[in-house]
# Entry
Amino acid sequence: MAPYRWQGPEGITRVVTPPVTKPEWALAIANGKLWAWGKNAPGKFLVELSRSPKEVGAFSGVTDVAVLPDQCAIIADGKVWWWDRAATEATEVKGAEGVTSLHADDDALVAVGDGGKTWSIIVGNAMPGALDLKVRQTAFAAGLQAVLTVDGAIWMFGDAGRGQLGDGTAPAERVRKKSGFSQKATQLALGDGFVVALVEDGTIWTWGDPKGALGHGTNWPTDKARRPAQIVGLSGIVQVQAAGGSAYALDNKGNLWSWGDNSKGQLGHNDKARKPAPARIQSLSKVKWFQAGLNCVYCETE
# Structure
């Protein structure tokens, strides 16, 4: 469908929705405060939500938020707080110190801290315990955890049977292995069966399931799909994300591009036609940041 303007609190820097097909609620960070809206959100202290954003007054100094279908976690005042559907208040996660970002999937929650240290708060598909890697970013999708290290390498942990290793293989067994991507990545995104990597020169490389959102046009053969390939025509990219079978990229001119699955109109082109290659969302310009969820996208424009 086409993007529409949404009236929320000023100063929003992050919006998250649960990893489900039809999300009923959302959380956002604006000026260090946590905001929530929708219905059936986890936590008994969030039961009076509506379609309009409501400030969750129990928290201040909020810098990041991550959600699972029935659980939430935030960084507030430098501490990690967690709650589930039955909780009447948030619980501090002991031992997680110096945390700078949170990353979640439907059954895993990982915190990343200063110096690349990690904590698996909810294990699920995540590698248990601290990784022997200095982590910049991590992502989850369909039983797989991808880790981007501070030196730009990408590692895979879990089910990479759809070619996500990027070395030409599709192993049947679970892996704990460095990917075949040889360039220095600055961001990564993990979709359903595919990987998107942003490198220092602003170009995007993808690999994985040829039925996924690789962005190379139609009829991309399996032997090519299992090795990284640059998406031709995209440059100056500053942010990449993926969700389900869809992928998105923001360039340094404020243009937002999307490709892949569009069955719910989530690509923003006012149709539901699949896009095998990136297409610019014509109705948006001067985009400052965006956040992709399953079948939905939030963004801010100037």
User: Anything to note?
Assistant: The chain has a mean pLDDT of 91. Residues 222-225 form the longest helix (4 residues). Residues 5 and 82 are 31 Å apart (CA to CA).
